[in-house]
Amino acid sequence: MGSAKKSSASRKARIEEMRRAERSRERRNRILTVAASVVVVAGLVVGGVVLLQSQSGDSDTAGDAKSTGTFAAGADGVRTWQGELTQNHVTEKVAYPMKPPVGGDHNQVWMNCNGDVYTEEIPNENAVHSLEHGAVWVTYTSEADKADVDALAAKVKRTPYTLMSPVEGQQDPVMLSAWGHQRTVTGADDPDVDTFFETYVQGRQTPEPGAACTGGLAR
Known about the structure:
It comes from Streptomyces cinereospinus. The chain is α/β, with parallel strands linked by helices. It has helices spanning about 1-65, 125-130, 145-155, 190-200, and strands at about 70-75, 80-85, 115, 135-140, 160-165, 175-180, 180-185.
């Protein structure tokens, strides 16, 4: 009888010890799980901050990248940009070193340039993207003859990969621009208009030949 009682007490003691050990393991596991979760969450937060900082840094770098150089005039009257023309996509306004711009950082959305004629000024940053796609940009001021403006508009409308818009403040009443190239023309009847179109519409200067001139920004 005494032996049986001792055996039962010993068994209860072992069971209780096992239960305490199990509860202790459960507590340790909960602590480890919580700790691991904290580490994971902290890692995600730190990683997200680093990623955002990296992206912000990339954006700032892109925005700070400026095209530098100067124009060199050729015997044919075409001015060619001598220097780097950066090609970063940016969201802010760009201070171009020439007017109208012939390249440089630009908005990620291009101006539609499938013979599109705009009667109001358009954002330089979108127009430059069109030049990157191989478009020729016809620009004019309020000093340009209305008959020339109308005739040039008709020509643009017939020519894919061209666009036209007013640009007040440019040095001459009518100018033609392509990526890295620019010239002044006297009017719609100037033979240099056709020559410029033939040379630079999807010409060898195009950084992204065949890229779309539709599906972009339209005004």
